[in-house]
Amino acid sequence: MTLWYSLILVVILTLVGLFGSQVNGLQPLFGIVLPYIALVTFIIGIIMKVLKWAKSPVPFRIPTTCGQAKSLPWIKNDNLESPSNTISVIGRMILEILFFRSLFRNTRMEIKEGSKVVYASTKFLWMAGMAFHYTFLVILLRHFRFFVDPTPQFVIWIQNLDGFFQVGLPIFYLTDMVFLAAVSYLLLRRLADSKIRYISLAGDYFPLLLLLAIGTTGFLMRHFTKVDLIGVKELTVGLLSLQPVIPDGIGSLFFLHLFLVSCLLAYFPFSKLMHMAGVFLSPTRNLANNNRMKQHVNPWNYDVKLHPYEEYEDEFREVMRGAGLPLDRDPEEEKK
Amino acid sequence: MFDSKYIIIGLIIFVLIVTIPISYNLFALNKCEVGVPELEILPKAGDKCVKSREYMRPFHMDLLNQWRDDVVRRGDRFTTGPDGKLIEKSLSNTCMDCHSNKENFCDRCHNYASVSPYCWDCHIAPTEIRDTDLAIHVEREEDN
């Protein structure tokens, strides 16, 4: 059911973008107003969310480690898995952010031969995740040829490498294929396994379907239903130099693509996609496991009113002496 | 707010990265903008192109690709133009007959949109030789 909600929503958005941009007079809305609103929502939304997260205290280290903590000098410790200082923590964060190390440890439980429980490592999710994120990055960087004028040299290098095999004209980019394949896998993964389908929400399907729609419209625009590229660049450079213009004769597929990207940007801060910022704020990843070396004081501890034994004895000394109880410090004894 | 030092530095870095395209366009160190290209007005205006302008703008590369395959792989060198004339499927001989200047015609849009077609890996772009260059060339020939 959640899949159908997401699918219907993406279809509605597609129809809105496709036909809305063809209505006379609405092109400035789809080409200028909505992209700006989306970009501002994206930036402000992420800042607000991160500031909200930063209000939660993290009083105690959560060492969900997979390695030996640093303790006695003769016990070999694992620096990256259970870091005890800042440099090792940075190492662990780099592995997490650039290589999704936590996901690499993904395992799958299966029951074999009737009653035998088997845990096996499964890397497909990690592989598809890596493929998706890195091709998305390359595609975003390639888009700099539309974002800025003149195009930086690194974009040309990426284009040449990406179209290395020179298949077709315009040259077919490898990342386009890998991107669409990876997103399709991530979507099918949720549908194929009944357990994963059961825990999948509309918020899981919607971004995947939206990304698939964005990738498909981009691919169609490059290879099939072409648009006026010069006009497209005039529009995007205008947008990103804060002097928006709407050139005539850009195909409606471009406005659809732009509209879907605007939807993604505006949706971003309110969705699971916030893991982009969240990965930096994961307490189990970004805090050193030094619980036994440093005292961590809970910031919301109230001041405990203490009544140590010395004060207790001062208060009841006479009574205690009268009852014949032993005293730690007896001023009368000391006088003698 | 906890760890405000890290949070604020992180957010500043985030905003700077996201707005790179805007800051690049506004304060680009390299101020020599390419700008929206304007195509040259052809000296032989009035002659008809093999296809309409609306087709050529987005699809010229498909046509050239098709011609390349026809000529190189099938030996099919000729086609009929819009006015019934026989035309050779050739970039250098047919297209560049009218669109003679690569720099003013091909390169303007290609540079603006950062397209680097591999036509010129095989084809030699016709260069316009100035009279002075020609004179020097002739002199050298005579010296030899």
From TrEMBL, chain A:
Domain NarG-like as annotated: residue spans: 104-277
GO molecular function: oxidoreductase activity
GO cellular component: plasma membrane
Transmembrane segments: 6-26, 33-51, 124-144, 164-188, 208-225, 245-268
Alphabetically ordered keywords of this record: Cell membrane, Membrane, Oxidoreductase, Transmembrane, Transmembrane helix
Membrane topology, record value: Multi-pass membrane protein
Subcellular location: Cell membrane
Family matches, as Gene3D superfamilies: Transmembrane di-heme cytochromes, Chain C (1.20.950.20)
KW Ribonucleoprotein (keyword) present: no
Protein name: Menaquinol oxidoreductase
Source organism (scientific name): candidate division LCP-89 bacterium B3_LCP
Lineage: Bacteria, Pseudomonadati, Bacteria division LCP-89
Automatic annotation (TrEMBL), chain B:
Keywords: Membrane, Transmembrane, Transmembrane helix
Membrane-crossing residue ranges in chain numbering: 6-27
UniProt-listed SUPFAM superfamilies: Multiheme cytochromes
Domain of life of the source: Bacteria
NCBIfam families, A to Z: cytoc_DsrJ
Protein name, per record: Uncharacterized protein
